[in-house]
Amino acid sequence: MVHPADLLLAPMPKKITAKEGAFNTNCRGFIRLETDHPQLLVAAAKKTGLQWEITASPKAPKELVGLTIVLDASAEIQPDGYRLDIHQHDIKITASTPAGAYYGACTLAQIIRQSSADKVEPHLLPCISITDAPDFPVRGVMLDISRDKVPTMDTLYHLVNLLSEWKINQFQLYTEHTFEYLAHPAVWLNASPMTGEQIMQLDAYCQSHFIELVPNQNSFGHMERWLKLPEYNSMAEAPTGCDTVWGHFDHPFSLHPADKHVMPFLNGLYDELLPHFTSGMFNVGLDETVDLGRGKSAKECEAKGVGRVYLDFLLKIYESVKSRGKTMQFWGDIIIKHPELISELPKDAIALEWGYEADHPFEEHAAQFGESGIEFYVCPGTSSWNTLVGRTDNAVTNIMNAARNGHSRGAVGLLNTDWGDNGHWQPLSVSYLGFMAGAMCAWNSKADPRKSLSDNLSVNAFHDPTGKMGYAFHEIGNIYQCFAKKTFNQSIPWQALFRDSKDPKWAEGLELSEFEAMETRLTELEEAAAGNEMNCADGQIVSEEWEQSLAVLSLAAEVGKWRLGGPKPKRLADMVEQVQMDHECVWLMRNRPGGLADSEKKLKVAE
After folding, report:
1. C-alpha span between 250 and 603 (Å, rounded)
2. What CA–CA distance (Å, rounded) separates 478 from 388?
3. How confident is the model at residue 180 (pLDDT cuts 50, 70, 90)?
4. Predicted confidence band of residue 607 (pLDDT cuts 50, 70, 90)
């Protein structure tokens, strides 16, 4: 029997009290639901994984009732909180809401999973009492489906299963052009987009797992997929590109806020998109408008200020969203640069304060939003993008920073982001670590996931009792630390394959020996993962993603050494071709074909 002190739970409950004895799951046959509306608790009963009959009958033989789930609205338990008591003779979950009962069942399921892994006493659960409730009312995940992966429905369902067990209750699909707008087929023609029917199916699935699916459509910057097409180009701030703080763009990027066609265009998108969602919220984006004031709006921005022009357009979108009965979410990166305007934001909108480095100033920015009276979320990230395999320590520190400062300053939510910049070359399993760390900190803002994250990942993501796969993904995510040079929002191995080889700045501060150390570490991790006993639903895919990650990092090491003056890799063209073939194979295991060709073009390994 697993000892209470050794339990790996994601997220870790606030209070656990160990008791004497054990409960034998072999000796009972009923799950009894105590509420006037027992249908509300069926999902919780099924989530436990116990193969017992579910009943609401008061006539169920008491000696055969192994689990009782009680819904008591008068109980002094927070809406998402629960009490879980495992006694020697029965188990009881008490909650004030169906969501709280479901989360209690999630915790019980993880305890049962670890007990089932015990080859000596697989049916004994330790007697414990758990009292638990979250710090953040909203605990979310946002997945990028626009650069360039659009997941299959099976992948999305699997992800909802995983996230809901970790008590995530909001999910967003970051969208630029990957919804099937029937009035705009040209923009999504080759993207394998989400259809309206699929959104409604996913929405219903999310609801059954106590997750709110929030619509998401960027509405200002990041509109290049639209604006590069002739029929939309006239609405661009800079139709042929311009100089920006990110360098020169040779393509349009943001909408021109004063164009008379822009708001009718956006209203048309909203009218098509929003009816497919039951959520009362809507994320309209509005981030990174780096070309604003560099094109058609230059004179207006010079006269009024870039911040004022930005805010005026934000308010137009706010009115459009409000007229549809929705609460607007928007990224806060532009308005935070104009703190004098924060007080003018609508008090019923939600600002999304984001940043992805470990030292992002969440404390300062959260204080500014908090003092303004506007509701806000803190939005860290998984650090998976532009890395191939993640940046483990950066991700966890970034998430902890967001959670602690966000909670202390009154943030109402934590939205953990997973982006796909530059072709989305990282596999989904790389992001599991960041998702879990975010879930842990969103539930308990003072939690330190580093203490158990590797083992927890093995048990509650990969269902691997050996601990090997959690350790392997945790440590390969730290491969970036083989290099002393600090990189922003990316890693050196990724740069070796995706940065222009003619860029002289790439090699600055790098040593050939660092790539050699990386190769040694890869060999160690390949050996460390051998003999794992993964039993998760996507175990075969995870295995393929692991092998592909090792291969692409090996190529990065070979190319990195070559770029720093080492010998040219033998049969380089064959190595690149094999990596691309592996990328395609792994991609299609979880994702639709649209976007794959664009992703492959991002690889920049030249002979």
Report:
1. 20
2. 11
3. very high
4. low
Residue 269 main-chain phi, psi, to 5 deg: -65, -45
Residue 327, SS3?
strand
297-338 pLDDT, tens digit each: 999 999 999 999 999 999 999 999 999 999 999 999 999 999
223: Cα separation from own chain's centroid: 22
Q: What is the mean pLDDT of residues 53-80?
A: 95
Q: Which residues 6+ apart lie within 8 Å of 241 measured at CB?
A: 248, 249, 250, 251, 252, 253
**Whole-structure pTM value:** 0.97
pLDDT of residue 119: 67
Cα–Cα distance for residue pair 517/124, rounded to 1 Å: 45
> What are the C-alpha distances in Å from 134 to residues 13, 189, 389?
9, 42, 30
Q: Decide if 469 contacts 542 (C-beta within 8 A).
A: yes
Tokens of 343: 């007080």
∠ CA 26-31-32 to the nearest 5 degrees?
Answer: 145
- CA neighbor of 355 nearest in space, from 233, 488, 468, 190: 488
Give the angle subtended at the CA of 23 by the CAs of 22 and 26, to the nearest 5°: 135
Phi-psi region of 565 (alpha: psi -120 to 50; beta: other; left: phi over 0): left
Q: Are strands 212-214 and 170-174 parallel, antiparallel or unpaired?
A: parallel
- Residue 141 is predicted with a pLDDT of 99
Q: Where are the beta strands (DSSP E) in 401-452?
A: 413-418
According to DSSP, the residues that pair with 93 across neighbouring strands are 69, 84
> What would you report as the CA-atom Rg of the chain, rounded to the nearest whole angstrom?
25
Domains of the chain, CATH where assigned:
4-132 (3.30.379.10), 138-224+272-445 (3.20.20.80), 470-601 (no CATH)
Q: Are strands 247-249 and 242-244 parallel, antiparallel or unpaired?
A: antiparallel
DSSP state letters, 44-103? HHHHT----EEE--TTS-GGGEEEEEEE-TTSS--TT-EEEEE-SS-EEEEESSHHHHHH
3-state secondary structure of 16: strand
Q: Give CA–CA dist 400/407, Å, rounded.
A: 11
Q: pLDDT, tens digit, for every residue of 208-261?
A: 999 999 999 999 999 999 999 999 999 999 999 999 999 999 999 999 999 999
Q: Where are the beta strands (DSSP E) in 146-253?
A: 170-174, 212-214, 242-244, 247-249
CB 493 within 8 A of CB 553: yes
Give the pLDDT of residue 501. 72
Mean pLDDT of 426-455: 97
Residues ≥6 apart with Cβ < 8 Å to 364: none
Average pLDDT, the chain: 96
Q: Do the Cβ atoms of 112 and 25 come closer than 8 Å?
A: yes
Work out whether the CA dihedral 397, 403, 405, 408 comes out positive or negative: negative
Q: Where are the beta strands (DSSP E) in 270-411?
A: 281-283, 327-331, 350-354, 375-379
What does the chain come to in residues? 607
